[in-house]
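Changelog-adjacent note: as of this version, every example in the card shows the full chain rather than a window. The one below runs 668 residues end to end.
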Amino acid sequence: MTTDSTPLPGQEKYYLDQLFHAATGPGSDRMIDTGVFTRSQQKLQGDTILLLDEFPDHDGASCCFLRMATGVARTAAFQLQGEYQAEICNSGGWLLKPADPDMPSYWIPQAPVSRTQDANKRILTESSAAVTGFSASATELIVTISVPENALVDITLWRFSQESAGAVKELEQLLNLETQQIYLWNSQTDYSILADIYLYLIHGNVYTNRFIWPRMWKICSELDAYSLFVTMDGLELATGKLIYNLLKRQILFSVITRQDEDGGWYHGEWTDQMESHYRFHNGALLLLEAGMDEWPEAIVSESLERGAEFISRQRDETDIGTWFLHDSLEDSPELMDELCKQTGSRWIPNRIFGKSPTNKLILNTHLDTIVALKRYCDVTGDTRFDHLVQSARSATKAVLALRPAELLYRIVYRAIGLTLLPASKAERLSFLPRAIKRLTWMYLTPQVHRIKRTFPRFVMPGGLIERHLSMPHCDFNYPAVNVMDLARYWRCFPDEDLTEILDNAILAVTGTSIMEYWAEVKARNRQQFAVVVWVEAMYNICTLNNEPAYRNYLAEAILCAEDAKLGLPPSLLGADHEAVQKSQQLPCPSPADHRVRIVNLSRNGTMELLVINSTNGDIDLAWEKSPASSLSWYTADGRCISKPGEVDPACVTARSWLRGTGQSSPDT
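Full-length structure tokens:
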């Protein structure tokens, strides 16, 4: 391989250190400029686009996104002057470390990736870009990659100068807590180490980390951005590492740069239209509301205000009050027809409660929007949406109170319950229940929507809570989502009388085998996400109610998730701004054994932990980073086995858990 500065024919050449200066040179575009984060854009050779993220209060750290444009097949050489050693990084990817400590270090979190995308930046295909050459000497390091014909190639690179050399140590030295699986709410995939951020954060936008049904493309997702932010927040609180703070900023401001002029975020999940999925939009609001706790910059507050104004307009005024919509396709029959055409689904227009024909009356997004707007009011003090929230609460109260056709629904849902059995139990059914089960899923379940339109009802006998009233399908994974969102809603409005509804909904899961049914892997059905959502629901319930029974439900759900090899929600780290105010959050300790999972329920000056062992053997209770205070320890059946000042329990027994509680110290 040639090592001079002259590119080979058909080759582009880049000097790594120069990239971090080129983005702010002549002709650059400063996209964001604040006291804590800047993003600049520059066009380089061959229409290559360079984004540079910098942190003015931490001048020694910066990150660039390099995107080589589509065109003819070619190679690109990346050259770094000086003597460097390439090492595999414990946080994922590779570190380029200089022999001269005065020179900068580099982190490449992911290998170069080749992509194709459409005009709306939805990712259509994705594959690794081939590394075709590598050489290192005492004077330079050169890596050459292949750029395929008619494809983009993306590269992400961090630079740490001597002033930020501590960040390199942070990447190399990890606690067990930093390497445990975190389940991201929208992608339904796991984050495990720092480099995984860049499976989602791609050329300055946060995407899903899977190709989304029905069009099988990757779309931008503010809900994943919010998940990542809560994860980074919890790990920053636990470790005190600067790198997590920088990543939080990068996620926050990446979401702001993607906001449309009308204040909305658009996704194009289901159709060729760039429709907005309002649950994702609300993810952006919740992220901005959390970000305001640390960075009340004008650009953050302005983005939040415009986003709140946008979502406040996405509503239907019904006879029972304001109903917040699920997506922008509900704006017209033509858009709903387009949805059905491109996904093979159906919609049946009706005017239940005087709603518009296209309003699908989806409960969970309605609740989510109420929560996002209530949080907006709490964070900003702006009360302009209070009348809408109050009207939406009236609509919520009305639909949750519906109890028509009790006997009919009781019979129907007894039969449906047979279809929600895990395979191990379904196989043991006698002939008659087996026949009823088969007839139910073949003939009854597909007709439930007709019953719901005739006798509108969300809360069913037995406790399950339906998702919608105006779509011709049933989704029995959503009872978990509805419990989670009702718990979040209840936190916002503690005067609501939801105890009976939630207790019955919880019993509908904990008193049956539906969680085992969710945990099963089925072809073309991603229902396992319901197990992790149930964990999130129980976390929210536990932070609202001190009853030990709810802790047991939470621990049992985590055992189920661990058995299914699923990650756990980021809120369990203890930094969910909805559940615990920033000023009241306490750091999550890190176990000495990576197989132990920790739930941080600490709040209101009280530290509370669940320590869970999902293995078939006992595990020593030991810490590589200890809890912030001395705790009393209780077994799963509520027995106190250790008090502050006494020796902690020796172990967590197989397939069990311990609960620790205690007051935090004043300087925690």
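Structural remarks: Confidence is low (pLDDT under 50) at residues 1-6.
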